[in-house]
Amino acid sequence: MAIKKFVVGSFEDEQVLFPAVKKVRKAGYKIHDVYTPFPIHGLDQVMGLRDTSLHTAGFIYGITGTATALSFMGWVFTKDWPLNIGGKPHFPLPAFIPITFELTVLFSAVGMVLTFCYLCQLAPFVKKHHFHARATDDLMVMVLECTSRTNEEEAKAFLASVGAKEINVQVAEEGWWLGRYDKEQKLFENKTESSLV
Amino acid sequence: MSFREQFEIPAKYKMWSLILMAVGLVSILVGYFMYGAGDDHQNARFWGVLLYNSVYFLLVVNASMFFICATTMAMGGWQMSFRRVAEAISVAVIPIGIISAVILLALVLGHKHHIYHWLTPGDDKILLGKAGFLNPTFFIVWTALTIIGWIFLGAKMRSLSKETDANGPYTAEEGKKYIFKNTIWGSLYLVWFGLTVASTVPWLWFMSIDAHWYSTMYSWYTFASSFVAGMALITLFVIYLKNQGYLELVNQEHLHDLGKFMFAFSVFWTYLWFSQYMLIWYANIPEETVYFKHRVQGPYRGIFFLNLIINFLAPLLILMRRSSKRNYTLLVFMSVLIIFGHWIDFYQMVIASVSKEHVELNLFDFGVAAGFIGLIMWTAGNALTKSSLIAKNHPFFKESIIHHT
């Protein structure tokens, strides 16, 4: 992961945010992310994000669960320790279905939760930079990533023109890191260019 | 922007519904001469085909009204843009209900004991023990009450919906009152639906064909079957109307949710189907396995597994993807497949009990089904012309316009 420079603007209303996202993308700025306190329908389309592949992962976890359950029970009751239970065949498929179903659900549920956390960069002891504390409360925070060709004064002016409030430039780690806030906060307190060395 | 609110029946649509109804009538006549006049076994096939077809299509169109009432109770708004379509389909409960009532009364009054052998219990202890429920008087009274209740409560829900066209737009206060009234009548319908489709009616009409046998899953299983086919029917009508240039406010989001219903209730159907099958298979008690003996190990084996492939595996694997639920062509294909699949399910529920020794599935079955499809097209098409296609004054209408999944 890398430390980068971001231009941050806050919006109070999604009626302003939607056209702003469209204009910012049209002007060619790179949107790092938009942080909102609640899910906003249609924002992903406007931002041009691709569909998540979380469900594909879920399907794969699910069939892994199915295969695990069937192959394990099949191996136990035909090869390892065949038992005559009520005169049923050694591979009694209907009797295996409930357990197969449960393992399918278990695998896909646990797998999808972990994958979701990974995709959102959430985990115990893992830290991420917060661009604005009120993004979890009542502000929608749009973060533009500065590239080598970005003039941040222009970007700030542009954000102001599309209705953003509290516009500032922050230098921050873009990804997640292992660590503690109290010790590493210093790195990010000084949100000026000089810390970008 | 103006909307095409008034549906005009295309000439082709009218022609096809008439052709299908004519095919149905001819099939019934030909079937009567082929089977109805024959020996007891052939006679039973004739009445069995009429029984499962009429009840299947009755429950499928009735599921439309169930869908309306269930979403009303859930304070749902997303279905408003195509609610009139579901209402129009539910109008077909009236003609098909009358036809089913006639067929069911004919079975009981005509002493068709090759279908309902509880009609002549003799000194059969089990049948005598069930005689408090399985007797002609109760059957006739309950069947009549059931169908009259569906028709009356359904008509009430439809008239409440049409009221909004003349009385609206509502103020917030009036809207609340309207929603309250709508909820009361919707809940009455649901209570009646629970007492009939979700419990007694499948016992009386279908399960009593195997009068010695019983299953506590049976009614739910029948309900799930008819509901998923009902959702498929609504989907077909919505897509047809969209292709004709109506229902401008319905988009992929609404179709996606209809697809979800088809997917979810296919899985629900399988859950009930399996819950019924597995317990009986596991316990392996002769009184219970008698129902599955000729279905799983006898001549109906092919249909038994075909049923599972069409109604479980196909919807599960095909409708699972988000993109397939938003694809009109694929949804049409799946709707047709699901309606056919549950028709086959009803076929094996009835015919496999009536004629255990050999399978007969021929043009007679398909012809009668075509007749009912034509009747649904005719009735629903006419009902659609009677009022605006858009329930634009309903208080929740805006929710449907901005619906997003």
UniProtKB/TrEMBL annotation, chain A:
InterPro entries linked to this entry: ActD
Which residue ranges traverse the bilayer? 57-77, 97-120
The keyword Plastid is annotated on this UniProt entry: no
A Pfam family (short name) is ActD
Q: What keywords sit in the KW lines? A: Membrane, Transmembrane, Transmembrane helix
Report what the protein is called. Quinol:cytochrome C oxidoreductase
Looking at the record's lineage, which domain of life comes first? Bacteria
Q: Which organism is it from?
A: Flavihumibacter stibioxidans
From TrEMBL, chain B:
Spans through the membrane: 15-35, 55-76, 88-111, 131-153, 184-206, 218-241, 261-283, 303-320, 327-344, 364-384
Q: Which domain of life is it from?
A: Bacteria
**Which of UniProt's keywords are assigned here?**
Membrane, Transmembrane, Transmembrane helix
Q: What is this protein called?
A: Quinol:cytochrome C oxidoreductase
**In which organism is this protein found?**
Flavihumibacter stibioxidans
